[in-house]
Each structure stands twice: as C-alpha cells, then as structure tokens.
C-alpha cells in the first residue's frame, strides 16, 4: 500500500491525540471535543460528508497556492479544502450555511452563529 503524504502525519487517533498532548500545543493539552478518525476530505477517496459540505459551501479561494501543489490526492478541484482548520457552519437541519477559511478565528463566527440561532427561533 502506498503511503500518502498528508497534512496530518499521525497514523491513527492515538498518535494524533499524543501529538496534541505532548508536542503541539503540548503541556498535557486535551481537546474539549471528540477527536474523530482521520479521513480524506478531498480527491477520489473523500468521504461523502465533505462532498456534501463543499457542494453547498464553495471556497472563497479560486486558485491553488504553491504549497497546495504538494498535496498528494487527485483530482484537484477549486472547491477543495485547502488546509487544516477550515470551518463549516451547519444549521439545525444539517444544512451547511457558511464556510470559513483556515485563518478565520472561531470567535469571528460569533455573529453568524447568533444570526443562525435567531433564524431558527423565528421559524
């Protein structure tokens, strides 16, 4: 089996959790969310969840940057998730309503989340 180079080098959940706990950020860090299995988010092996999310919330980035070209999946699509920590906002019906690039801090989503909650209360 060919070993593919990806953004997350950990082979499984235990390795990934240990890297968070002891390396980066380290200091015994434990995430306060459920850590899911590593999966493909782009290319011919992407899981259906990400196909669905990207279909409803396309990226704001039209072109690949130089570092994106080192990725090891095919085919490349403009809707691809470009880097770790892209975020999707999903309503209570499971419909994606917004997509945020890696640089977008979760705190910056606060107003969008508030607006979505207000919408839900009114419907």
From TrEMBL:
Domain of life assignment: Eukaryota
List the keywords (alphabetical). Oxidoreductase, Peroxidase
* Family, as annotated: Belongs to the glutathione peroxidase family.
The identity of this protein, by name, is Glutathione peroxidase
Report the source organism: Tegillarca granosa (Malaysian cockle)
Lineage from the top down? Eukaryota, Metazoa, Spiralia, Lophotrochozoa, Mollusca
């Amino acid at each position: 089996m060919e070993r593919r180079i990806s953004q997350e080098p950990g082979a499984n959940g235990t390795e990934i959790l240990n890297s968070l706990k002891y390396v980066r950020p380290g200091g015994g860090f434990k995430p306060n969310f459920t850590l899911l299995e590593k999966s493909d988010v782009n290319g011919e092996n992407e899981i259906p969840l990400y196909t669905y999310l990207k279909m409803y919330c396309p990226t704001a980035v039209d072109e690949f940057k130089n570092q994106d070209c080192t990725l090891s999946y095919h085919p490349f699509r403009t809707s691809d998730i470009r880097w770790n920590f892209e975020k999707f906002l999903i309503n209570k019906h499971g419909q994606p309503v917004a997509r945020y690039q890696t640089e977008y801090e979760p705190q910056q989503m606060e107003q969008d989340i508030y607006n979505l909650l207000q919408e839900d209360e009114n419907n």
